[in-house]
Structures are given as structure tokens and as C-alpha cells.
Amino acid sequence: MTDANVESLGDRGETSTTLLIRVKAKDQEAWRRLVQLYTPLVHHWCRGSGLQEADTADVSQDVFRTVAESIDGFHHDREGDSFRGWLRRITYTRMLDFGRRKARSANGIGGSEAQARMLALQDDPEDASSTDEDDRAILVRQVVDMVLGHCKEENRQAFLRVVVGGQHPVDVARDLRMTSNAVYLAKSHILRRIREEFAALVDI
Fold first, then answer.
1. Are 115 and 51 a contacting pair, CB within 8 Å?
2. pLDDT, tens digit, for every residue of 57-66?
3. What is the structure's pLDDT at 6?
4. What is 144-199 written as a DSSP string?
5. Average confidence score pLDDT of the chain
6. Would the N or C end of the chain have less CB density within 10 A of its end CB?
7. What pLDDT was estimated at residue 9?
8. Residue 3: inside a domain, yes or no?
9. Is the pLDDT confidence value at 1 over 50?
10. What angle do CA 139, 8, 38 make, to 5 degrees?
11. Is residue 80 part of a domain?
12. Is 37 helix (H, G, I), strand (E, B) or coil?
């Protein structure tokens, strides 16, 4: 039962500059991580609007192409601004474009019912089957997986059980044969890593 190496958990020597700033600076690894972070959420929105898997993949590509072209125009300096809201508007615009293309195609895949559902989004582009809580949960799960994949297993388990599972650190420490201090440090350092890299993107 030791605290050895807790200070280094989750640290891969990367700059603490936030992911969003690095994406705007044209950092290719940061862009890969941004796409990895948000792809499950974009797919969730697409499937919730009736898209099939193949069409979801096509729309997702259009979404991230638009993000790459427009990222310099995104600002988080006004009340209510959020990257997720901005991305959601882009996603629905790309889905509308997809619906229009299908409607114009004599051999459109998905049938008139699917096309009508897509085109109905034009009346209320902010309408969606998922709630804000659903969307946040998808993002939190993804960011935790991305960060915890680089942690020691005991620290990973400690974080998940305390932060996600709501278990008491003393109980977790006993089960994992760690000190209570090691559990608190694991929680603290992983949360710091998440907040440093994903600031302005994920609230955790």
C-alpha cells in the first residue's frame, strides 16, 4: 500500500495548453483527439434524427470538415457560448443538407418517411431526441476513457469508483490495497488533467 508514482499518473509529457487552443493552432494530434472526443456525440445526434449507420458516417465526415474549416470563428467569450452548442448547430445544418440531397434524388435511400423526418428538422433545428444531460454524459464517458487509458489500472479504478461510482475513498482504498491519500491523489490529478486539456469543451 504505497503512494509511489501517483504524481506521474496520466502525464504523457504534453503541454497543458487546452485542446481547443491547440486545434486552432493547427496541431494535428489535437485535431485527432477532438474528433475522437466528439464523434460519439455527433453519431448520437444523427441516429436520434433517423439516420442509418452509413449515412451517419457520411454526415459526420461533413460535420468535421465544416468544423476544420470554421474553427477559427468559434469563440467562447460570451455567456451561453459552448463548443457543444456550436457543433450541434453544424451537425443539424449538415443533416438538413443531407435530407435535401436525398429528397432530390429519385433513388434516395431511406424512403419518403425518412426524408420527411430529416426535412422536418428545418422547422426546428434545435429539436433533438437527446437531452443536454444525455449529451454531457456521452462526452464525459468519452473524455474519461481517453484520459484513463494512460493511467495505471489501480488509479483508473480508484477514479472511476470515487468520481463516477460515488464510493467513499476509504472503502476504495481498502479494496484496491492503496492508501486513502493515494486515492485522493489519483482523483485530484486525473481531474486536473481532464480540466486542463478539455477546458471549454467538457464540464466535469
1. no
2. 999 999 999 9
3. 42
4. HHHHHTTS-HHHHHHHIIIIIS---HHHHHHHHT--HHHHHHHHHHHHHHHHHHST
5. 82
6. N
7. 39
8. no
9. no
10. 15
11. yes
12. helix
